[in-house]
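Because discrete structure vocabularies remain unfamiliar, we first show an illustrative case, written as a sequence plus integers encoding its fold.
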Amino acid sequence: MNCTIVTGSCRHHFLANAWLAAFAILLSFAACATTANAQQSTLNIDQTVDRIVAAENREIATIRRYSPIIETYIQDMRPDKDLGSVPVKDHYFLGLVDFKKGVVDRSLLAKHKGASGPFAHFTQFFSTQYEPVGFLEMIFVDKRGIDRSHYHFDFVRREFLGEVRCLVFDVEPLPNAGKFRFKGRIWADENDYTIVRFNGVYTPVSSLNGYNLHFDSWRTNMQPGLWLPTYIFSQESGLKSAMYGLVRFRSQTRLWGYDLQNPTRESEFSELQVEAPGAIQDAAPTQDPTPVEAEREWQQRAADNVLERLQRAGIVAPAGPVDKVLATVVNNIEVTNNVDIEPEVRCRVMLTSTLESFSLGHTIVISRGLLDVLPDEASLATMLAQNIGEILVTKRTTDAWGFNDITNVATTDVVSRFSFRTTPDELKAANQKALDLLKNSPYKDKLKTAGLFLKQLDIEQKALPALISPSLGDRVFLGQELIESAPQLQLANLDQISALPLGGRIKLDPWADRVEMVKAQPVALISVREKMPFEVTPFEPYLTYYTTPNAKLQSNDFTPKPEASSASSDPTRAPAPPQR
């Protein structure tokens, strides 16, 4: 037994020594590796910068191959002792990027046709005039390219933007580098060195032509290895000049429609399969339609012609999950009012920020901007009820769009060519019908929140005419009965939410133009300054790498349920702030 113990002790001692020796070797290797990595990190700073420079120059060439839609919405601000700052005037631009002629923003709006020029400049004393092409410039760090002969790069740290690990550098133009050089900070993807975010200003800040404005520009990964400009937030809190006065503003610029020149119809065509004649089962009607059915079919096809053209122009989103949410609300209103509309009412989303909606045949089109700012489902139901009222009362014809040559117009002419506005008398009649529908709907006990929304919009309409003015359809109808039935607006009450900031509900895929509702957990407001109804806020997207579009976002408390229970959500609960 002693021998066994001694033998065991010897073996234990031997193994312990072996482990200690191996551990010492590992520590030695680790120390060497750490030293090597430190030396490599120091030696590779210049090489890393060179890779970022090369990636950015490739990025510039890549960007110039596309012609996306660009939308810029600006709010001029003034200080407010309670709210920090509030909008007093706004400006709206919608255009098509054209890099074949330089950096050009071809306006889609009739009132801005031909607008182009130098970077956002101010041409009148004590008033601001913004040039949309100036905000387009902000998609480039430097449109001439960046390199170490014109810029100094100072490594700051590594940082995650969403799931993307980035190398962060402060960048400053070298002396005599020339005008219109970028000064600020860049974030480069550590995998391929593409700059995915840059924050700063072009220098010099001021000149005889106006100001260069501070901005925060983001790119998103739309396809494998493809990063393209998506969001730009710009702001000045008190830029002063003897010539141009005080400049205080906030703006959001969005880009989408990158795949407009490469539509999915090509891939859809390639997926068609020709089956044997015996396998074909034609689901089409086996006899001619009646005159009434033929008329319905003609009207529906005419509406589809227009919707198809608007979608191909990047103005209306493809059919998707948001449409189903809207259709559920429409169905709730129809069922509880014993209304059966044939053909059935469909819903689509217009991609712009302006607050508008319209009906086209039996299709309701509502803007992304309007969906963004609605505080709850009852307010959404109120907007949709107005359009249902139009369908039931006005019964407008779509005869003008029945021939395809009429709807086959250039993208730059789509907004100016089409108009779906109703007359004041038609709006009034539709509103009365909408009230009747709402009073019998599952939302009848929640209409005070819709009245609060309309009341807040009524107050803001003088300061925000560009946001409220429609491009294609009708502005939000300010029904007096709902406004008068709403409680008083209580600025200090953090639980009373009359309207949301822009960007709070809808996420737009800038490649395929699809929209989805964003799931955001409710966040308790801590100050009245966080209410920000209809206001512009910064972008803070959670960057991700491209994945197949199978994974769908979950909708938030905006998602209705069929039947009357769909209106049971609490409208006084403070919703989550915008998540982008």
Observations:
- The chain has a mean pLDDT of 82.
- The chain is about 30% helix and 25% strand.
- The first helix runs from residue 2 to 43.
- The two ends are 73 Å apart (CA to CA).
